[in-house]
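Hi V.,

You were right to ask for the full record rather than a summary. Here it is.
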Amino acid sequence: MKASSLVRLVSLAALAALVPVPPLAAETTPTGQSDAFGVSVGVQAGPLTVAVAPTPAVAGTSPPSYDLDDQAASASASSPPLGTFLTTGVLAVSAASAAPQASDTSAQAVVNDLAVQAATAVQLNATTVRAEAGASGACGTLAASGSTVLENASLTIANPIPTVVTLASHPAPNTVAFDGLGVRVVLNEQSTSGGGSAAGITVNAIHVYLDAAVLGGLTVSGDIVVSHAAASVDCAVADADDDGILDVVDNCPVNPNADQADGDGDGVGDACDAAGDDDSDGDGVEDLVDNCPATPNPDQENSDGVGAGDACEPLCPSSAGGSSALVQTDHAAPDGPFKVEAFFRTSPAQALKAGNVVRLSDNTVYATFFDAANVEVLAKVLDGCALNDRIWVFTAGMTDVNVLLRVTNLATGAVWTRTSPKGQTYKTTLDTSAFVCP
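Predicted structure:
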């Protein structure tokens, strides 16, 4: 080989070593979520509260893929002096997702033979009420859609002149069928999110809002949901600091640093090193992962499970101003009783406040945050010991504030929590392994 050729080869090798090679893009893996329920009721009439947790209900998250279904022979809501103001025939729900093999995710809810007495002068009937939700498509072009189908649906208004209104079989999204006498009826209620790398939709076939409606001689407020379905898919590959380097390979994913400079060679980019020291508070936890980088907290305690650590965030849940409730499964002691608490806040800058938790039955509670007439969260503790040697916790909500639900087994000290971030609708959770049976 000529000397000139050897020099060129050495020069090219040196140049290649100096030019940074951009990280390879991470492969996108679709994740899916879907849930469905037949009916849900939460109404307040003076000191009287009537609540029906989502019935029946299914929910899944993929991967792995899932195909769930459930049904109930009927559902009803009643209480003196309101009487029976909701009845149904058979209810059937399903939820499925093929992720990660495919991005398709779906949910469906069907309620038959519906009768709702929304107010003394307002009655709603339907032979069949169906809600469908789905999200699918190629990653990057995801889309979500939903629909509502009503069969033989009608509204009867008795005041001031008796009138029967036939409801459309395929109502357009967010159709207000009636708004008066303290009753607002919305058909095919839809809310969508995302698009492209993430997409989701929630469909309530019928949503009845009550605001000082008159029923059974009482003033009633709250809401009734019939046939709920929701589905979402997310294919996004995270690049939190938008520097063109994916989080999975970024040496400083919280601060933009396209050059990936790492002067001290510790694996943490200079953009995340604080004045040459990547552990500003000297607690042995690097700033990159420290939940309180300015105050020593080697234990990384974070009591509320949200945001910064306790050392930086005086937001530990306080029971002041609120109330808790005790529930008991039908399993013999010592697996209970269970203490249920609910905390909330409307801004990350606020401390978590205690809500008021009220016992609805031996194993079910509801929580209110702002108004005793406004039910925000429902929870029940169930005995699954004979099926999978576990105590189950089911919860559902009708709020988008930041929520921390805490269930404590007073016999063992074991704690189960469920958090819901601000700005997202509280999602139904059906945890069939919450506590180990004694």
